[in-house]
Amino acid sequence: MKRKIALAISLIFLVMVLMVSGCVMNIDVPGSTPVDWLLQAVDGQARVIIGFSGLPDKALIKAFGGEIYAEFGFIKALSAKIPVEAIDGLLRNPHVLYIEPNIELYALEEQYLWGMDRVFGDESFVFPTWDISTGEGVKVAILDTGIDESHPDLAGRVAGGEDFTGIGSYSDDNGHGTHVSGTVAAIYSNNIGAYGVAPSASLYAVKVLSSSGSGTLDWIIAGIQWAIDNDIDIINMSLGTSINTQSLEDACNAAYEAGILIVAAAGNSGNKPGNRNTVEYPGGYASVIAVAASDSNDARATFSSTGPDVELIAPGVSILSTVPGGGYAYYSGTSMASPHVAGVAALVLSANSTLTNVQVRSILQGTAENLGLKMEHQGYGLVRADLAVQAASGSTPPDPDPDPEPGKITVSSISYSLSRNAKHIYISVQLEPVVASASVAIAVYLNGGSSPYYTGTITSDTAGIAKFTVVNAPSGTYSTVVTDVTAAGYTWDGKFPDNSYEKK
Does residue 397 carry a pLDDT above 90? Predict the structure, then answer.
């Protein structure tokens, strides 16, 4: 609390200096310090998100001269405009947990000019996967700039939506949301323009970004709440910010706990070697699938953000899709990669409607194609619609190169790594020989306990690796026991290496 108060006092001084000099703080300046972006103050007023330990105290906010803009019933927070000089007093109140800037999030699109064929396993636009599933019955909310529902390739695909930007309509006045929507569910029966991954899925236009391609934090949170209230199955957020906020994480967690699968762009802040942790939020949260971008050569797009929170990779360079006015355009960015994953998730859920969001996520992970890139660049690998749908429907693809003689399979290594925020432990179990689609079960023990702290079963990827995530792992010593490995044509030798990992 002392730290919060000290920070608030410093902010008040900074804001006063800026007001005297005739400046307005800009939260979007690259390289800005936390003090620079924490408050966006105009005439001594700051737009903020206030979190409470219990029900939001509206009377308290009004007593300090604040104006309430939005209340969020699914998280203990509200959006308000408050005088800068009120921040110190509000932070002293024991019921106030945090005060965050009502930051702006931006559509993650690179403005320069392939992907369906690759996502469907090079089926060359014949797409036999569609014989199993086309996404019918699945509700996908596009939290973006809106959707042009009059586009010929989106006709009948937009089932509803809501505007949170104040223009009174969820129509797309930017183009980004329509392009993202086309990748998810553009129809194919008219034989023109672009195709969507799940052409029978129902789209919901949740407009949380303005014509400029940006939107405030409270708009995004309100959009997530709308998705929960309207029983949405999948949320796509091709947007992000480098700023980690508790309110947005709480909103994403609430949606995930409500059974919604959340897919988001990883961000466009990567560098050529990809040696920095640059995944943006909400992609960086454990409840969200962060999607990186690949090019037509299966390389990571140089702009694509990197880090341990990257979960999947999908085509994101020169992607043809729908734009307002009935047209088509090539866009690049992790914004274009994310809807490929959202579309595949819709196919999976349509193929097997009994699956939970956690199970759909596991299938996407277990059937992803390892591109031979660093885990921080590709996560589990390239999303594969054909393999994921086969796994969900129970069908088995033909083995193009069957092993003529069944053999032994062993666990050659067990490795550990931490998430970006050090909350989660990633466990990788390597099989030898390399066997894809093997079922690997583990039990993880904490501090030598007699009962497992975590258990899980994951399908190995094309590199023979089964990847597990222990969410919100406390400090201590972890040891992993492999309890079962099953693979067609193989028998497990029952052995695994001794291992342990200390999380401080």
Answer: no
